Amino acid sequence: MIKQCRTIGIFFLIALGLNIAQAGDDLSPRDVVLTTSQKVLEELKDKNVNVNDNPEFFYEIANKYIVPHFNFSRLSQRALGKYWRDATDQQKTDFTDQFRQLLLRTYIVALTKYSAQDLSTFIKDKIQVPPVNYPPNAKRVDVKVIAERDGGGDPANITLRLYLDKEKDWKVDDVLVEGISLITNYRAEFSNKIRTNGMQALIDELASHNKEVMEKKATNDDKSSQKTKSDKK
């Protein structure tokens, strides 16, 4: 349904190991992105678990280390473009909630083939952040991240667009993978759906999609639990 899933999934895989700190720490935007979160690595390195076995563990990490560094209301507004102005307050709230869930679900799906130990190794060994040139009073800065791909080949080039918010925190404003903007892609897709069926239909579709993912997850959890009980007999 949502074509941008792989794009945001690639980014979240990288962002998992990056601690986006406060500008008040006197860090450059590059330092902000480059600073590896030792807490994340400590949580990952000794865990013998993958997403399919324990998705809640990875949801916890996402909510703890990634979600605080995104302004989902701002991202939602940009993703809807001109249609944000026409939405009711309730629709804005509902869309933001469903869009946030979509991005988090995508993050989890992107990690399904990895164990915690695999992620720890990936974060430590396969991410590079080149130097960034920007004026000292900059409010927006692009930080490039180069990540090795599984199985070799050309590395993935990701650009994190950071902006300085009112609290002087650097937050992610957009993600570009190989020059393609996550927000621009979503805006094009959402605009088409709104023109065809309206804002509420888009929100309902996102809600249905998120519910379907959760129900599938619950079914898989039940099967996994039954298998575990069977193996113990």
From TrEMBL:
Naturally occurring in which organism (per UniProt): Candidatus Nitrosacidococcus tergens
Spans annotated as Disordered: 212-233
PANTHER family linked: INTERMEMBRANE PHOSPHOLIPID TRANSPORT SYSTEM BINDING PROTEIN MLAC
The keyword ATP-binding is annotated on this UniProt entry: no
Keywords assigned: Signal
Signal peptide positions on this chain: 1-23
InterPro entries: MlaC/ttg2D, Tgt2/MlaC_sf
Protein name per its UniProtKB record: Toluene tolerance family protein
